[in-house]
Amino acid sequence: MLSKKYVPIKLNGFVFAYAFFAVICVVVDYFKLIEYYTVRENNLFHLKLAIANQIYLVLTIFVLIGLLVTLVSLVPKKYKELLGFMDFPKIEKIDWVIIIFLILITFLRLPFPDRSFDVVNYHLLSQEFGFENNIAYNFFPGNIQTFTFPLGDRMFYVLRLLLGYRGGVLLNTLVLILLFFQVKDLIMVNENTKVAYKHKGILLGVAALFALSTEFILANIGIYMIDLLALPFMLELYKLAIRNKTVPQYALIYSSLMVGLSLSIKFTSVIFCVILLGIIFIRYYKDISFKVIIASLLVLVLPLAAYVTYNFTQTNNPIFPLFNSYFESSFEASSNFLVTNVGPRSTYEKLVWPIYIFFQPQRTVELPYYSGRLSMGFLVSIAYIGIGFLRRKSDHVIQGVLMVSLIYLWTLTSGAVRYALFIEIISGIFIVNFFFVLLSMDIKIFDLKARILQRVIPSYGNQRYRSGGMRYGLVSVLYNLDIKSFFVRGAIGLLLFATLAQSAYAYYFGPIKNIIDWSQRPSIQGNTYAYFQNMKLIGSDYVPMQYNSDDNLKGIITEIDVWIVAPGDVTTGYNALLKTDIPILNLNMERRTPETEESFLRLAKSLDLQSKNIYMISRRSPSEIEASLNNYGFYILSVYEIHPTFTYFPVNLIKVGLK
To answer: What is this structure's pTM?
Structure first.
C-alpha cells in the first residue's frame, strides 16, 4: 500500500524501450544457445525455432516493442503517476535541432564504411545471433577477444539487417540521442540549475550537448564499437542513486536489470555498475522486501547467464580472458588481462592521474589527443564539494565525493579514457551544474567584509587604522571589492572558455577532420568524390555482398571450404561477411599457449586441411605475408583483388596451400 508521502522517481520511457530491445536480443540468444547445445553440439533432437530466422527476428522485436508502447498508452494517467512507472521526455524545438545536428555529424563519416581494428577483428563476427564451437570448429576467430560478451554486437546486427553495412552503425547515433535526453534530465536534477533553466530550453539543450561532446564519445559515431551502448543503462542507475526521492520497490529490480544488460554489453563497466547498485541498495534497503532482493538478483544474472555458460564450457573461464589468474584457463596466460600500454605506472601517478592526463594524453589513450574532460570534471567535483560545505548542501557534497571516487576507481583499474566514457558524461553534467550554481551563488558566501573586520582588524574603529598605512589601504581595497564580480564572474568566464574550447576540439579533431577516429577513415575534405560515391551505397550494402564486376569470383567464393587469418592480419570480420558457415582458423592464436597449439593441431587434423580449398583475405600484399605464412606451413597459390561493398578500398583474396 503506497503512503500519501510516497514520491516516486519516474523511469525514462526511452531507456525502458531501449532496455526492452536489449532484453529481446538476450531472449533470442537463449533460444540460439539451446539450439547450439541440442543440435550443433550433441545432435539430440532437431530443434527448429522461427525466431532464429533473420526476418522473423526483426519482425518479432518490432511487434513486441509496438505492443509495449500500446499497453503503456492504455494505462490511465493517474495509475501511471501512482506507480511512477515511466515518463517520456518532452521533445522541444531545440531538441529537434540538436537531433538533426547529431545526424548531420554522423553523415560526415557514414559513407566510408567502418574498418576499425576491433570491429574487423571480432565485433562483426559476434554480431550474428547464435553460438559456435570456437575451439574445435573455428579456432579463436576473433583472437583473444573471441569470447567477449556479445550483446552489444547482437543489437547492432538488427540495425545492420535493416539498413545495410553502412547504415547499421546508426545505432550509436540513436544511443547518443537517447543519452542527450538523459543528460538533460540529470542537469535539471540540481535545484539551482532547475530554477535557472526552467524557461530557458535552448540553454539547457546546448548544455546537454556539451556534456556529450568529448572526442572519444564522438569517436564512436559511424562505427560498430559497442562502447556507447551500455551508457544509457548506467546513467539510469546514476539517476536512481543520486536523486533524493523515494524509490519504488520495483526500481531495485529495474536497476539490477540495468546492471545485467550493461555487463552483457561491456563487462568492464562492472566497476561503475556495482558501486551505483550498492548505493541504491544501501539508501533504500529498509523499504525493500526480501522477495524483491531475490528477484533483483535473478534479473541481474539472467542477461549474463547465457554468455557466462557458453564461455565456461568453451574455456573454463566464464569471463575469458579476464581474471584468468583466478580461473586458470589453459588457453590464456595466468594473468588478469590488464591494459598495460596506457594508464598510471606508479603510486604518484595514480594520485595525480586525473590532472596528469591533461599534460600527457598519450598515457591515457592510444591516440595522442585528449582535451581534458576528466581533468575539468575532477577539479569541478572538488569545487562542488567545497561549495556544498559552505552552503550546507549535503547533496552537493555527496555527488562530488561520488564523482571523485568514480574517477579514482577508474584510475586504479585501468586509467584508459576509452573505459571512462561514463564518467566523462558525468563530468560534463558536473561542469554544467557548477556553472549554474555559480550563476545563482549567494554573494554572502564570498563576502569577506565580516571576516576582515573580525579577524584582520579587530580595532577597525580606532583612529590609527583610519589614518592610513599599507595595511589599512589593503584592507580598504578588499572591503570595497565586489567579490562576486571579481571571483564568480571570473570563474564563469573561465569555465565558459574551457568548455567551448573543449567542445570545439572534440568536433574539429573528431567528425570534421576524422583525426580521432578508431576507423581511421578519410574525411570529406579532399575526398569529396569518394565520399559521394560511397554515399550511393548507403542502404544497399546488405549481406550477401556484391563482390565486384568479375562474376567468376562468385564461383571462387562458393568453393571456399576454410578461412585462415594470417599472422599480423585482422580480417576475421571480412571473412564472416564474405562467406559464413565455414571454419575460420586464426593463426595469431596458434602458439599463444601449449594448449592452444595442441588444439589447433587437433582441429587441423580433423578438418583434413590438405584436401580443402583454403583462402584468406588480406589488406597487405602477398610479398608482405608470404614469409609469415611459410612459418606456419602455408604457401600462396593464387591472388585475386576484390572490392566488396563493405570496404572503400580493394583487398586481396588469397588461395593458400598446406605444405
So the answer is: 0.84
